[in-house]
Amino acid sequence: MYKIAVLPGDGIGVEIVPEAVKVLQVIGEKFNHQFEYTEALVGGEAYDATGHPLPDDTLKICRQSDAVLLGAIGGPKWEQLPVHLRPEVGALLPLRKELGLYANLRPCFLFPGLTHASTLKEETIAGVDLIVLRELTGGLYFGEKSRQEVEGGIKATDVLSYTTFEIERIVRYAYEVARKRRNKLCSVDKANVIETSRLWRETVMELAKEYPDVETTHMYVDNCAMQLIRNPKQFDVIVTENMFGDILTDEASMLTGSIGMLPSASIGGKVGMYEPSHGSAPDIAGQNKANPLATILSAAMMLRYSFNLEKEAVIVEQAVSKAVAEGYRTPDIMEDGSKPVGTVEMGDVVAGYISNA
Ligand code: NAD
Ligand code: IPM
Ligand code: MN
To answer: Which residue positions does UniProt flag as site: Important for catalysis (predicted)?
Structure first.
């Protein structure tokens, strides 16, 4: 039996998570696995119900599970709260920290059926298959923050720090991933300006000696942002710090057709967390318009990384591939001549392909 904490969260979170659960259910029935789901409150809805975006109960449920499936959190309703009560800082970051999830895997894979759904040219993106390893529990997000009054206004500070230990463990992980792929690692930093980036680069250069079979390159983050659009096929594995990884992966999601296609796995501790890379999309929430595929693909990553069910993970990915190849489209990946579907219908299509596989 596999115990899964289910945290739908806010906005489209409550629409996309049930579709991923639907898919897990079909996998369970087909392959005789028992998934036990425990739903818990997180984010703005948890704040509204309990006064805190990460109630103790929720953290306990996550800790007692084998894996966490998260939708998304945050939204305009909670933007004015004191920072420690905001869903992002008060719930998501502590969840990642408490569960020790230092490695965030964001695979950017273009399903062949979606070559024309992207705003980018077909020849630029056809065949894109890269993965970003984002450091997730350090850097600017977790550094000390402060505000003080100064002459003429206020001064705000966010401390950016990294230790060699933090850099080494994510970079080592990235090398191991590269060894299972095309043996190419690109480390992204801003070593021409930032001290933590200089330490980052030195640390990667040291570790590179242990992985002579992997081709190591270094790239400045501004150049990387451009290269991802100019020639994304040059990349295999990208490893980078927390905030650079956040920004580059939203950008890279367009290589896959839509941010609604980009899954993620956060691992490193006993319990892995799986969530789409996108947010709660308040602009389309509650309208059955959200693309559930990033969440469904995140559930596939759960099967792979937390439960070691590789065959089942591949079946889910193949069902997603078939759904888009057959022309089923939520509005974000819509193109002429396709079959328009909503969130629920897309989940049904994928689940249907799995049960008939
Ligand atoms: P967002 O990712 O929620 O939305 C950006 C754009 O992408 C919107 O136009 C949205 O409609 C679209 N989009 C996102 N997911 C989609 C999907 N599955 N299908 C179709 N379209 C999709 O980013 P934002 O608007 O900057 O943030 C909204 C809220 O989400 C904020 O409160 C932010 O802090 C939060 N957020 C949470 C997470 C998380 O929980 N992991 C991640 C990012 C942002
Ligand atoms: C993400 C999100 C989060 C991040 C926010 C909501 C804290 O943008 O998961 O990419 O920046 O890590
Ligand atoms: Mn982000």
So the answer is: 141, 190
110 inside domain: no
For 67-191, where are the alpha helices, taking DSSP H only? 87, 93-98, 122-125, 164-179
Q: How many domains does the chain contain in total? A: 2
Question: pLDDT tens digits for 273-324?
Answer: 999 999 999 999 999 999 999 999 999 999 999 999 999 999 999 999 999 9
190 is catalytic: yes
Task: Exactly one of 60, 222, 270, 339 is catalytic; name it.
Answer: 222
CATH number of the domain within which 249 lies: 3.40.718.10
Ligand 2 center–CA 93 separation, angstroms: 8
pLDDT for the residue numbered 305? 98
For ligand 1, atom 23: residue with the closest CA: 279
Neighbours of 248 (CB within 10 A): 21
Could you tell me if residue 109 is inside a domain?
no
**Residue whose CB lies within 8 A of the most ligand 2 atoms, among 246, 251, 273, for a mutation test:** 246
Q: What secondary structure letter does DSSP report for 306?
A: T
Q: Which domain holds residue 313?
A: 1-104+258-357
Hey, is 189 helix, strand or coil? strand
